[in-house]
C-alpha cells in the first residue's frame, strides 16, 4: 500500500512536469525591444493613456480629448484615470496592464512623477514607447519623450507683462513691486519664479524696479499649498508693514487663484489696484481681466498639448522620429529627455477675445 | 460509500471550514477562467502573472496581519499610514543618512515594531478600542509621513528596490526557463507530497481512516499540477524576470503565519480571544499579551509592506498607503473571516485578496476604468459577505456548506437548549 | 376572599421545550386587587409561567388557557399583553442609562403633538407618574445618575404610563438594599389599596410572608399548592416545605466518601466590587477543603458565591483586598488565571455559553484549551495528542457526539457541560470548583455529572460545588457552607443538612455553626 502510494506520487508529479514542460516555453530571449528606431507599428495599434485621478477639470478634458483624438487618428485608445484614493498603486497597475495588453505607446500624466520608474522600465523592455505628458517622470533612463508647456517661459511672460503693465500706467519708474511664488513642494513653482526673475532681475539691479519689502528670495515669497488665504494674509501683512505711505505698482503672482486673493487684500486696504499677473485662465480671473482688475493671465491650452502628443504618437507609428524642440533642458535625474515644449500665451484685456476664441467656455466672457 | 461520495467528502476535507475554503478557491478559479476567456488569454500569460504578484504582494502581506487582528476581534485602520510613515523614514535613512539598504530594512521593521508597541499598548493595556486607536494612528502617522517627507518624493537606491521589483536570479544551464523558479516549484511539489503523507500518518495515529488512497493521489495530482503550471509560467517570463522576490517574501510569511495560527499555542490563543475573550481569560489565556501581540505584529507587517511598495515604486511618495487598510480588510472578509472575530484563516485571506487582485487586474486588462472597477469590487465584497450571512440566517452554513450538506454525516447529537444563542455572523464567499 | 372577582386564571398550562417539560399542568388563580406571590426553586418554572402570561411565548406554543378579565386571551406578543394592561418588570431592568427619567418612562410610547414629541406634556405626565410611585426627582435626571432603588421605581412608573391592571414583578428587591426594599413593599401595599393587582416572584420568603395575600408554589414545573397567607397561617417554614419537599434519594449515585485531611484553605478573604469600590462582595470569608471531599456552597442568587470562587481562581473577579490561600501547607499567591491553573485549581463557570466555552470551537479544541502546554512541544501543538486526549475524555465521560471534531455549539446542555468538565479535568487539578454544574441540564445528564463529580473526589481531589438547588447540595456534598450577602454564615455537615436549616442560614446574617 505504502509503496504503491509513493510510486504513484512520483509518477504523477513527473508526468505533470513533463507534460507541461513539453509544451515548450514561450520565453522570448531579449524581447523585441530596446532597440533603436523601431520601424513603426500598425495603424490600429493600442495606445495607452494613464492619467491621474479625476480631481481637476483639466484632466477630464485631456482624457476626453485623448479618447476622441486617438480614435480619429485610427488608433485603439485606452484612457485610464487613477482611482480617487489609491492613486499611485492604481496608475502603476494600469501601466503594467497596458504593457501586457500590447500597447505600442503609453502616454503618462503621472500621479507621482518619481514612483513610476519600475513600470516605465517594464514598458521599455517590452518595446513600448513612453511619453510623459505635462509632468516629467523622474529617476528613469527609460522615458522616451516629454510633452509640456514651457514653464520657464510662463514665468518670463509673467515678468514681462508685469513690466509692460506698470509702464502703461505710469511711464517712468521706479516702480514698487512685491513678489509671490507657489507652493515650496511643487517643482513647477520654482520654475515659474525663476522665469519671472529672469526678466525682472536686470530691472531690479538697475533700480528701475524696487521690491519695497525687501522679500526677494523664493522661500520668503512662497505660499504653502497654493492656498488663497495664505496669499491674502501675506499681502495684508505687506500692506501694513511697507505700504503705509507708499504706492504699490505691481505684484508678481504665479497663478490666478493667488492673484485674486492679492487683489481682494489690496481692495480691502483701500489701495488703488496694482498690476497683478496670473496663470491658468480661470473663469473668475478672465472675468476680472475683462473688468480691468487683474492685469494678465497665461493660457495653456490643453487642446494643443493633447494635439501635440497625438502627433508624436502618429510619428512613432510611421516609424519616424517625433518632432522635439528641446534636447538639453529636461534632465529627469537619469537622462536628458527629448522634449517638445509648447509656448504658453500671455493674455491681457487687449488680446483676450482673440486668445480664447476657440474656447467654448471662456469665449463668451470676452464679448 | 460510493466513490463519488468519497470524493466529495474527502477531496477538500469534510469539515465545514474546509468546505468554505474550497468555496473560496472555487470562486478564485472561476474568476481566473472567466478573465482568461474575456481577455483572450492575457490573464494567465507569464508577464501578467508576474505583475499580478508584484502588484499585490504588499496588500496580501497586510492581509496576513489583518486576519490575525480581525480574528482577535479588533480592526486596524492605520496600516496604510504606518506603511507610508515607515516607507518615508526608510527612504530618508538611505538617501540622507547613508544607511546601507539591509540596515535600512531592519530599521524599517524596528519602526513598525515601535509603532505597533504604541498601538498595542493603548489597545491591550488601557483598553481603548482598536478602532479608535488605529483611527488615531491613521491620522498620526499620515501626518508624520507628511511632516517628515514634506509631501516630496524620496528615491531609494538600486539594492533596496530588489525587495519590491527584483526576481529570482538566472543561473545554471539554459533550459529555456528560469532555473531558480523551476527549483522552487519542485520544492513546493515535494512539500505538498510530504504534507499529504504526513496527514495520512496523522489520520492513522488518530485511529481514523485516512481518505482512500486514490483520493489522496488525485488531490496531490491536482495540487502538483497547479504548482507545476504556475512554476512553468513564472519561469518562462521574459529573461530577467521570473518569480518575484516580493512573492518569495509573501510565500515565506504565508507559510510561517499559517503554521503559527494553526499549529501553535500562541496562534490558538488568538482564536480563543476572538471567539470568547472571557472564556479565554478564564482558561488562563493572557488576554493583554495576545492583544498587544496582534496589534504590534500588524504594524511590523505594515512597515514591511510599505517598504516593499517603496522598493517597487523606486521612491517613497506622499500618496503611499492611501486606502490600503480597506483592501486588506476586504481581503480578510472575502476570505471568510467573521466580523465578530474568532473565525478566519490565513490561506482564506490570501485567496480573498487574490480574488480582488485578479478582479482588478482582469478589469484593467479589459480597459474598464477605475470608477467602474471600484463599483464592481464594492459589490463583490458586499455580495460575498451577504450570501454567507443570508445562508446562515436560513440555517445553512454557507453556499458551499449547503452544497456539501448531503454528503456530511447527519448530526446525531440531541438538539441544543431551548434558548439558542444567535450564531456569530461569519462570512465567506 | 373568594367573593372577590377573579382577574386572571391560568388553566392547566403546559409548556415544552425540546427534551424538557418546563411547565406541566400548572394552574394559577389571581383575584383582583391582591398581591399574589409565586414561589419555587430556580428552575421550578416561575419565569416560564410569566413568559407564557406576557406573550413572550405566544399563544399556540403552549397548551392550556389564559382567562383574563373574564374572557380567554390569546396574546401573540408582549405588546398584546401590555395593551391588555399586563406589564412585567424584569429582574434586569430594561432602562436606557444615558436617557432621562421622562424619556425612559415614555420610550416607545411618546406623547406626540403634530408628529413631534411633546416634551412639555411628557415632563408633566412624568411628574404625575413619578408622584404615584413616590419618586422625587427631576424628570430630566439621567437614569445612570440615580440608584437601583429609584430605577426600579422608574420601571414601575413606566408600567403606569401604559395603564397597568396587572403588575408582575420578577425578583423586585433582589438588587435593592433594605431601605429601598421597604419603600418598594410599602408602595405595593399602596397599589393594593388602590385596587391594582400584583404578581410578585421572590426568593425572599420574609418579604413574601409580610406582603402577600396568596402564595402559589411551583416545583419541577408543577403547581404544588396555593396558600392563603392569613387563612392558612403561613410562615416561612411552611413555604420552604412546599418548595423543597420531594424525594431526594434516587437522584444521586451511591457513594461512600473517602475523605483525607485539609489540603486547601482560604483565610479572611476580602474582595471589593470591580466597579463600585465601596461595595464589598466578599467579607472576611474563610473555608477549608479536604482531599476527597465534596464541599457545597449554598446561598441565594447574588449572595456572592460565584464572586468568591472567581476571586480565589486567580483574581478573575473583583478587586482583591486581603486574605490568604494555603495549599498543601504552603501559602500560594494566585494573581492570574494562569497562576491558578498552574497551582492545580480549576473553575467550571456558572454560565457555560457566555464564559465557559468558545462556541466556535469543536470538542477537541475546547478540551485542551486550558492546558495547551500538555499537548505542545516548544509551543507547537501536536494534533495527534490533542485528538487522543479529547477522544479519551469523550469516551470516559460518555459525551454524546459523533466525533471530537463536532462543534460544541451543536451539543445539548448536558454534553456541553461534559466538555467543560473534560477541559478542566485535562488540567489535572487538585481542586475543582464547579459553579452551578447542573443548571439547564435534564435529569438523566445530571445523574451522570454527579457520578463524575464523585469519581473526581475519589481520586483524591477536592471538589467545591456551588448550587442554588438545595436538594442537589444535600444529596451530593459532604459538607455545606452557607453564604449570605458576601459572608459565610454557616457550615453544616451532611448529616445535619436539611433544606429548612440551609434556607434559614442562607437568608440571615446570624452565624449558626452546627458542626
Automatic annotation (TrEMBL), chain A:
The keyword NADP does not apply. It comes from the Bacteria. Residues 47-320 form the Periplasmic binding protein domain. InterPro entries: Bact_Solute-Bind_Prot2, Peripla_BP_I, SBP_2_dom. One of its GO terms (cellular component) is outer membrane-bounded periplasmic space. The keyword Signal applies. GO terms for molecular function: carbohydrate binding. It is found in: Cell envelope. SUPFAM superfamilies: Periplasmic binding protein-like I (SSF53822). Residues 1-21 form the signal peptide. This is Multiple sugar-binding periplasmic receptor ChvE. It comes from Micromonospora noduli.
TrEMBL record, chain B:
It is found in: Cell membrane. Residues 410-423 have a biased composition (Basic and acidic residues). Keywords: Cell inner membrane, Cell membrane, Membrane, Sugar transport, Transmembrane, Transmembrane helix, Transport. It is a multi-pass membrane protein. Its main location: membrane. It comes from the Bacteria. The chain crosses the membrane at residues 21-38, 58-91, 103-132, 176-194, 214-235, 241-260, 292-311, 331-359. The keyword Transmembrane applies. Part of the binding-protein-dependent transport system for D-xylose. Probably responsible for the translocation of the substrate across the membrane. This is Xylose transport system permease protein XylH. It comes from Micromonospora noduli.
UniProtKB/TrEMBL annotation, chain C:
SMART domains: AAA. It is found in: Cell membrane. Residues 8-245, 266-510 form the ABC transporter domain. Keywords: ATP-binding, Cell membrane, Membrane, Nucleotide-binding, Repeat, Sugar transport, Translocase, Transport. The keyword Transferase does not apply. One of its GO terms (cellular component) is plasma membrane. It is a peripheral membrane protein. InterPro entries: AAA+_ATPase, ABC_carbohydrate_import_ATPase, ABC_transporter-like_ATP-bd, ABC_transporter-like_CS, L-arabinose_ABC_transporter, P-loop_NTPase. CDD domains: ABC_Carb_Monos_I, ABC_Carb_Monos_II. It comes from the Bacteria. Gene3D superfamilies: P-loop containing nucleotide triphosphate hydrolases. One of its GO terms (molecular function) is ATP binding. The keyword Membrane applies. This is L-arabinose transport ATP-binding protein AraG. It comes from Micromonospora noduli. The lineage of its organism: Bacteria, Bacillati, Actinomycetota, Actinomycetes, Micromonosporales.
